[in-house]
Amino acid sequence: MTKKSSARGPDLVLQDERGGKTVYFRPCRMPELPDITVYIERLEALVGGKRLEKVRLSSPFVLRTFDPPIREAETKRVTGFRRMGKRIVFELEAELFLVIHLMISGRLRWRERGVVIQRKIGLAAFDFSEGSLLFTEAASKKRASIFVVKGEKALAPFERGGVEPLESTRTQFTEALQRENRTLKRAMTDPRILSGVGNAYSDEILFHAQLSPVKRTRQLRDDELGRLFESTRTVLEQWTDRLRNEVGDGFPEKVTAFHDEMAVHGRYKKPCRVCRTAIQRIRLASNEFNYCPRCQTGGKLLADRSLSRLLKSDWPKSIEELEELEATRPAVAAPTKGRGKQAAAKSRATKETRTKNRAVEQTGTKKSAAKKRAAKPSAPRASRKRATT
Ligand SMILES: [Zn+2]
Fold it and tell me: Is 62:142 a contact under the CB 8 Å cutoff?
């Protein structure tokens, strides 16, 4: 296990085995709206209207539903695609939907038809007559998922409730943001508030809007809210255009949250592009955010103890907690109908406690956590189930 420190990103390096050789995966971040949009555009171009011939699963765990069986998707024509938050939805004939969540390390690759699924990182392959779409995940702990559901209504559980940043009005945007009094960074990355935005683009948006990541949403003045609304659209549109141009008529191969052209994200200690002040970074467990202390926080460095406390009360403490936010409890597996609000709240509370406990466990050294992962490359079925129920 090596520990690499770089200005570009987190230190954690996951270890895996391939052909007897140890390989190190550079940690990456969850693909966000611009990445997902470009994936979908290229999928439309490559397999839109085409027949899905075969689905090959290399990991049984990646499939989180059993009814309808995934075999039902075979021989169906792809009628379209849609994005739901950070998920990609394949729309097939007979109102069948394949819902794919890449989570942090999941990626799609376009390869020659029938390509062998790589051991360790390969999850599944979708074969079309023109080629195969490979679903990979370069991480020891597999979090990416495929759900198969039938009928529009069955898609409802995948809706996290956040407003669409490019489709909402300023009023809808403001209402969503101020429903709770969160720190801006937290609000911008919460899928229940805003759809499709994560760690990387929230950094970029807050820099563009010249707002502090720890300002509370209900403390924003009207002009600040206006700026944030505009910056959200501008940054997401500009980055989607940029990625679209990079990919051209190919397929996205280097989906990462770190781009040299970014203003603050992954630019710790580098000079701000506007004022030349060194970009600062705050790290909390697996999260980090980057900001310019002159452009965004009036010269204040956000590093004191009270800030830590403030953030700790408002911020996911671990990948697991982030995962909880992203995870879906599909109606097919969990009959939630008829369950009272109280029961639902209770179960949420239990879940939070559980997550907290896990977060505490996680605060041990990264080394020991990594060792555990290396020793147990496939997590027990029970813990996998938890994400889906
Ligand atoms: Zn600056």
Answer: yes
Report, as an integer, the average pLDDT of 51-65.
94
The winner for highest mean pLDDT among 250-264, 265-279, 373-387 is: 265-279
Distance 276 CA to ligand 1 centre (A): 6
* Strands annotated E in the chain: 14-18, 21-25, 54-57, 78-84, 87-92, 96-101, 106-111, 122-128, 131-137, 145-150, 280-284, 287-291
- Do 285 and 318 touch, CB atoms closer than 8 A? yes
Q: What is the mean pLDDT of residues 230-248?
A: 97
357 burial (CB, 10 Å; 0-12 / 13-18 / 19+) is: exposed
The CA 324 to ligand 1 mean position distance, Å, reads 34
For residue 22, report the phi and psi dihedrals to the nearest 5 degrees. Answer: -80, 130
Q: How far is CA 262 from CA 187, 205, 267, 388, in A?
A: 21, 11, 8, 34
Query: C-alpha angle 51/57/59, rounded to 5°?
Result: 155
pLDDT level of residue 8 (50, 70, 90 thresholds): very low
- DSSP of 4-45: --BTTB----EEEEETTEEEEEPP-----HHHHHHHHHHHHH
How many alpha carbons fall within 13 Å on the CB side of residue 387? 27
Structural domains of the chain ordered from first start: 33-158 (3.20.190.10)
Instruction: State in Å: Cα 283 to ligand 1 middle.
Output: 19
Region of poorest pLDDT, from 1-10, 86-95, 167-176, 365-374? 1-10
Q: What pLDDT shows up at residue 327?
A: 61
Q: Can you give 190-249 as a three-state secondary structure string?
A: CCCCECCCCHHHHHHHHHHCCCCCCCEHHHCCHHHHHHHHHHHHHHHHHHHHHHHHHHCC
One-letter amino acid at 262 equals M
User: Using an 8 Å Cβ cutoff, are 197 and 231 in contact?
Assistant: no
Question: In this structure, which residues have their CB less than 5 angstroms from ion ligand 1?
Answer: 272, 274-275, 277, 292, 294-295
